[in-house]
Records
---
Amino acid sequence: MDFSAWRGTLGIVRPTYRPGGMEELIKMMPEGIGVIPLFADIRQGTEVEFRAVLDRYEKKVAKLAEVGCDVANPAGAPPFMMLGYHGEADLIKSWKAKYGIPIFTSGSTHIDALRCLKADRLIGFSYFRGDINKIYAQYFLDAGFDVIDMVGLDADFQKVQEFSSQQIYRWIKQNFMKNRSAQAIYMLGPAWRTLDIIEKLERDCGVPVVHAVPAQCWDTQRHLNVNEPVLGYGRLLADML
């Protein structure tokens, strides 16, 4: 056992080499949880690329199992959402059986988080343009949620991190106020640097926020049987529901 990871080791397949989300996750992770990252090397952020990358993910999951990770997280919601909710569930089940370790995806984490928050009706936000957002919305519809909208940011995939968190706050709040029956705000992806606005949105909009990075920390703890609340990143992680 690696004594620096005495509570367990998470293996992550990061979708891109983009910095930010990985560092944020490690900073909020409770002491004693180790993290081993591998990378799927997604570059364009297109539907075609997302549909072609799953074999690459599987090879990385196999490596994480080989080196002894306690749980594997092939991260990055879009490639798996392309399969649909039921297709993704079947893939996770087959990989668990094949590699012998617990496995969770970003999408499965977000579904479980929304259910724990008892949020049946959501409004989602992504940093993708166009019709790909309909695929993301359908994923949640197939999981049994009422999706008011999946709003896409008008941004190039490689420039998402250039938007300030204040810009993202204003954009999300404006759209939420048009759809105030939503029971949760869902933010797809870790590329935007927005941890500082999660609690502000929760207070100002009156609903919980499911953000990719705190949700990843929450689900890692669940899979490693750790229960350590982390404050400052929204209700899900603060309450360890």
Note: The chain is about 45% helix and 15% strand.
---
Amino acid sequence: MPIKIPADLPAYDVLTREGIMVMSDDQASRQDIRPLRIGLLNLMPKKIQTENQFARLIGATPLQIELSLIRMTEHQTRNTAADHMESFYRTFAEVEASGEKFDGLIITGAPIEHLAFEDVTYWDELKRVMDWTQTHVHSTFGVCWGGMAMIYHFHGVKKHALDHKAFGCFRQKNLAPSSPYLRGFSDNFVIPVSRWTEIHANEVAQHSDLTTLLASDEVGPCLIQDNKHRALYIFNHFEYDSDTLKQEYDRDVAAGAPINVPLNYYPDDDPNQPPENRWRSHAHLLYGNWINEIYQSTPYDLNAIGL
């Protein structure tokens, strides 16, 4: 079944061309079922690219999804047209004031790893968002910096600076094959990684309500389940397009910034060759499993979420 998004959102045409089922508000209003309400708190500078990436994954399930785009209230993006933000986004303050509830919320990453959490200009509001999820969201998915922010806020688990950027496609181990979130997963696989910080496994292990589901010998924990807060934290990027790492690499090369060729990404590690996507199937499995778990457990009455 389709994902419901505005017909004039750029992702509508992108996903339609890719064969993913999408539905306009008018079409959805004629169906007598309740769609799952999923919010996307988009902290990335390239808003449209990020919308497409996550809509692609959560829209590939047999369920109807209503996607709501949310931004921080005071923070203004410089990389996305103002009319796009005005047309498709609501501020968190508006969402909070409305009292509405969501079956799921994705909190994206943000390119601010070098800052302490407390130095981020919107940290106080983001803390309010994370506390709000406990009464207004059935299941929350924190991605990369968003996941690090959540595990720090709720558990005090710190992010640690790396000597060099973890950049490329790193092999992960499936530590919990029986987890419903890993249904259909291989024992090991690769996932794109692009970060200057990491979470330490021994610090995660100190918290009994945190379970590491996926991890790498090279770049540490990848996916953590937080039962107490009904949340998942992923520190890598299943949502990346085939050429996202290439875009980052080309950008840094053009800027003269120190950067290594992304590991295990290009054939023979040769950046003159087109990159290979070897994570797409697991990306769809993870987000499809997350959507399914929400569908199986969320109250039919939205007002009952968080009670």
Note: The first helix runs from residue 10 to 17.
